[in-house]
Amino acid sequence: MTDEMPPQRYTVALANEIEHRWQDWWDEHHVFDTPNRTGLLAGDPRHVAERPSLFVLDMFPYPSGVGLHVGHPLGYIATDVYARFQRMNGRNVLHAMGYDAFGLPAEQYAVQTGTHPRVTTEQNIATMKRQLRALGLGHDPRRGPATTDPSYYRWTQWIFLQIYNSWYDTRADRARPISELIPELQSGRFPTPDGVPFDDLGALEQRRLVDSFRLAYVAEAPVNWCPGLGTVLANEEVTGDGRSERGNFPVYRRPLEQWMLRITAYADRLLDDLDQLDWSESIKLMQRNWIGRSTGATVKFPVEGHADVAIEVFTTRQDTLFGATYMVLAPEHPLVDVITANEWPGDEIVNDWGSNAIDAWKGIFGMSDPPPVAVRRYREFATAKTDLERQVVAREKTGVFTGAFAINPTNGARIPIFVADYVLMGYGTGAIMAVPAHDERDFEFAREFELPIVPVIRPSDEWLAQNVVSPTDATDWRESFVGDGVAQSSANSEVSLDGLRVDDAKRVITEWLEAKGLGRATVTYKLRDWLFSRQRYWGEPFPIAYDEDGPVALPDTELPVLLPDVTEFEPVTSDDPDALPEPPLARAVDWVEVSLDLGGPSWAGYGKGARTFLREVNTMPQWAGSCWYYLRYLDPTNENALVNPAVERAWAAGERGDGSPKVGLVDLYVGGVEHAVLHLLYARFWHKVLHDLGHVSTPEPFQRLVNQGYILAAAYMDERGMYVEASEVEERDGGFFHEGEPVEREFGKMGKSLKNAVAPDDIYREYGADTLRLYEMFMGPLDKERPWSTADIVGVHRFLQRLWRNLVDESTGALRVVDAPADDETRRLLHRTIAAVRDDMESMSFNTAIARLFELNNHLTALDAISREVAEPLVLMVAPLAPHIGEELWQRLGHADTLAYEPFPVADASLLVEETVEVPVQVAGKVRARVQVAAGADAAAHETAARSDPRIRELLAGRTVREVKVVPGRIVNFVLA
RNA sequence: GCGAGCGUGGCGGAAUUGGCAGACGCGCCGGGUUUAGGUCCCGGUCCUUCACGGGGUGAGGGUUCGAGUCCCUCCGCUCGCACCA
Questions:
Q1: With 90 as the cut, is the pLDDT of residue A644 above it?
Q2: What is the DSSP letter of A730?
Q3: Which helix (H) or strand (E) holds A801?
Q4: pLDDT in tens, A233-290
Q5: Top-confidence residue, A231 or A99
Q6: What is the pLDDT of residues A479-493, one digit of tens each?
Q7: Among candidates A948, A881, A939, A949, which has minimal Cα distance to A79?
Q8: Which residue in A348, A670, A735, A804 has the most C-beta neighbors within 10 A?
Q9: Which percentage of chain A shows pLDDT scores above 90?
Q10: Could you give the angle at which helices A868-878 and A846-860 cross, rounded to 10 degrees?
């Protein structure tokens, strides 16, 4: 079979031999060791440390036990190509890969098999390193920490302490050390309990007061509690039907005391600073929506018969206040019990049908119950609904009247107060004023409950005409009017909005509310503080201990707080929803109890001499380690600091593409869109805290973000609806079969669940790593999803084979390259290719760069010998994409050192200009001929050339040319009359 | 429902941003090398037509000398959010 094969053909055997040899060579010669300008990693034998820096980063991978499939390295290859290109372009490039190795999968596997998660994690990291090394990625091997290394999580804990020991100064709009809060408290800037001066407070009161300012705090908050897993879960770990993603156990919302991080203090900056980042608009929008800032006003509504109670609502439409005809409290609202009447009011409120509307308000569970019973039943009904039911039942409005009335503060109207689950306790104040004329949800509810609808904004004429209704009487309205318009029926003896447009009306009414002490301008956010503790073993321990009064921070000298080496790391699980979390670390009794002499100020809970504390037994969530890993890449071996500030500044200095200074440390960040909100928001938050405290110099972590598309692959489902192993499916007669049975094909994200994963190892074995790299880059634009097709790989493999054959004689192995100059046509093609490839590499359009290289290479196959002036630039251009064959050919061309630092070819501009250009000629908009004109010729010359073309002359004969449009070098168009 | 993005050959995808639609690759067709298959090499390949020509970028309309590209309406797909006051 192989006896016919030329001995020096670029087969997979030769490719693999070349690849392994160069991977070893790179390691031995430290080719990708990136020097820092100063500090521990400052050695610089290649003299590149002073070059402009470029930090290229991949999202931190989790070392999974099942190994990689070919979808995983797509982004890693892209960053490697870009990093190699920029390194050849004169940049000092930092590119490294660490491991996000804490987390639930290793712990679950440990529970199933009894293997300690550290063992599994180390094995998985080794497997992943082997698979990634085989791709030829040019990472600095010294800069790849794992979050599970104590030398790494020591600094995760240190950052937590920085956050804990900080408060947010809203006046300076930044976080400051907690020690700087004390003078502020002493000066009386912040109110103290009962107005007692801070220094006169007891130690515990001081401590409680200071704790209430910290950016990390313990609070009771409703969380996703999963007794089946024995831990609380993040929202993203819970499926749409309220079960755990792993294990499919029920998840319950219940209040538990947990660590929270005060990310809400940064809401405005997290929102506003997005403008300075080079991220896709869709990702920015997702973050904006998640933060969910809305500006409006809070307004107090007095409650009839309760002189001391007012219901505070948040609204973005304070201009419609005169149209508020009822109020709604969320079922969980604490005032519900306070204001609910004992009996239904005796009022007659006549509805449109002439009957008493109150009868319709008494709820869905029977009209004989008094308000307290009706309200209790409704609350039970509302809380029993799962999230799924709330979605499916969608917008069907339910609720119940409390029997109580509030007073609209603008016009004194008595308005009924309802409880309804369309108002959420978690947003705003958990209560709303309802303006059914100008709010869709309120309108639906008002129709359902026969409530009055009072238009206070005159709708646009267009809307009125379309709906054929009155602007002032909503009886016939089929929907609310939510657009801009002019206020009407909105005046009392002190203020009038009538005639004002929405924005002006908002301003006027807000001023009036503030003057009367009834309300004020307010901004609210959807963003909630970040629940930061988990009941897991395999995570970072908190650097926190407790005395009888609460949490106390451990000093830096106690770091790292090592994860105790237990034998039972499984959480306590249960079927009982009322079971309480029992973190696995609670069982490490010897570790939990710790004797410390903390010393220090009483407000920090210290200062009591040596005594016994109990350690925090929760661990941090997996996000903790991934919030700051990119900073550790800068200075991974530093034992005295998270990162040497001088090193950090050197990497942070730099410019964006447009020459403006960058605000984000990392120049290019590539990863999956699944982290659009959580990881990217958390990391930005931590970075900003570290920036405020002076530990990093930029306000943002990631300047430019690119989301690579998923790799899709055909998946096959049998008649039972089960996925079958895609690699075992055969196609025949236009159908697909698995073990003889017909199966249905679909396309989906490559992975274990669809049984359609393709292992990179199989591709190396069949084609080699350079071919895999090239194929993944050639499939399509980086940010688009693309279907994997193993059959298509031969195309790029043939390219490498042809490239090899163009430069190396397949039978003798001799170089086919000559020193004679290239012919003119080849030289011009080369320089056009260089110009195009350079542009494409800059914009990461690798698929088109590869197409250009194909064209040049195909041109060369027709030549008897290849000139060195073409061969060398070609090899250098291929090298970032296919570095092993690049290095091998470079060496065979007579170079002793790596090409990784060779300058990327630069096109000779004079060779890009053709002497003549072919210009299409249109008659009446249709291309009828092409003519040659001199490059740079003017419009008249174009027209003359076009008119002298015989075909054009024929077509124009006897016709009147009304106009001739000429775009020199591009087109000539004769416009006929 | 709201928001964002995308619809180009049999398939993956190009098109300097309003100027020659289909680069490049797969597949397919034909030929060569080979005992044969595979590999490899050469040529062809949007549809229609013998050809000249005509048609063609999800559908329909518009702007323009000129539209894959801009605008409007609709259809389809993907993603995100989902009672956020």
A1: yes
A2: E
A3: helix A793-807
A4: 766 667 656 677 667 777 777 778 889 999 999 999 999 999 999 998 889 988 999 9
A5: A99
A6: 899 888 899 999 999
A7: A881
A8: A670
A9: 58
A10: 150
- Torsion-angle region of A357 (φ positive above 0: left; ψ -120 to 50: alpha; else: beta): alpha
Residue nearest to nucleotide B38 (CA to C1'): A1
With tokens 């770990």, the residue in question is A237
Q: Are A438 and A348 in contact (CB under 8 A)?
A: no
Q: Look up residue A542 and give its two tokens.
A: 């908190």
Check: CB of residue A771 under 8 Å from CB of residue A14. Answer: no
Nearest residue to A742 via CA among A750, A752, A731: A731
Q: Which residues contact A364 (CB under 8 A, 6 or more apart)?
A: A378, A381, A398, A400
> CA of A789 and C1' of B26: distance in angstroms?
9
Neighbours of A908 (CB within 10 A): 13
**Does the pLDDT value for residue A155 go beyond 50?**
yes
Name the residue among A258, A118, A253, A260 with its Cα closest to residue A618: A258
Between CA A977 and C1' B19 the distance (Å) reads 21
Could you give the CA distance from residue A943 to residue A46 in angstroms, rounded to a whole number?
57
**Residues 6+ away with beta carbon under 8 Å from A734:** none
Nucleotide nearest to A965 (CA to C1'): B65
- Residue A469's alpha-carbon distances to A274, A473, A485, A554, in angstroms, are 43, 8, 16, 69
CA of A631 to C1' of B75 (A): 49
Q: Are A123 and A86 in contact (CB under 8 A)?
A: no
Cβ A450 vs Cβ A439: under 8 Å: no
Instruction: Give A275 CA → B2 C1' in Å.
Output: 23
Q: How far apart are CA A243 and CA A253, in angstroms?
A: 11
Q: Which residues pair with A291 in a beta bridge?
A: none
Which amino acid, residue A891? Q
Q: Which residue is nearest to nucleotide B42 (CA to C1')?
A: A862
Measured CA to C1', what is the nucleotide nearest A439? B85
User: Per the structure block, which two tokens stand in for A44?
Assistant: 């610089």
Return positions of chain B under 7 A from a protein CB: 3-5, 11-16, 19-21, 23-27, 34, 37-42, 54-55, 65-67, 78-85
**C-beta atoms surrounding A77 within 10 Å:** 26
**Eight-state DSSP code of residue A237:** G
Nearest-nucleotide field for A425 (CA, C1'): B84
Q: Which nucleotide is nearest to A526 (CA to C1')?
A: B84
Cα separation, A791 vs A293, in Å, equals: 49
Q: Give the nearest nucleotide to A281, CA to C1'.
A: B4
DSSP per-residue string spanning A657-676:
TTSSBPSEEESEEEE-GGGT
Q: What value does the mean pLDDT of chain A take?
A: 89
For residue A24, count other CB atoms closer than 10 A to its CB: 11
Q: How far is the CA of A132 from the C1' of B13 (A)?
A: 27
A957, amino acid identity: A
Q: Which value does ipTM take for this structure?
A: 0.94
User: Å between A86 CA and B53 C1'?
Assistant: 51
**A292: nearest nucleotide, CA–C1' criterion:** B84
Nearest nucleotide relative to A967: CA against C1': B19
Calculate the angstrom distance between C1' of B73 and CA of A828.
Answer: 48
| Closest amino acid to nucleotide B16 (CA–C1') | A836
d(C-alpha A264, C-alpha A140), whole Å: 36
Q: How many CB atoms lie within 10 A of CB A85?
A: 24
What span, in angstroms and rounded, lies between the C-alpha atoms of A566 and A463?
A: 69
- The rounded percent of chain A whose pLDDT value lies above 70 is 95
Q: Name the DSSP class of A117.
A: H
Residues whose CB is less than 8 angstroms from the CB of residue A743 and which lie 6 or more positions away in sequence, other chains included: A716, A717, A718, A719, A724, A729, A736, A737
Please answer whether residues A320 and A327 qualify as being in contact, where contact means their C-beta atoms are separated by less than 8 angstroms: no
CA of A910 to C1' of B65 (A): 33
Measured CA A478 to C1' B83 distance, in angstroms: 19
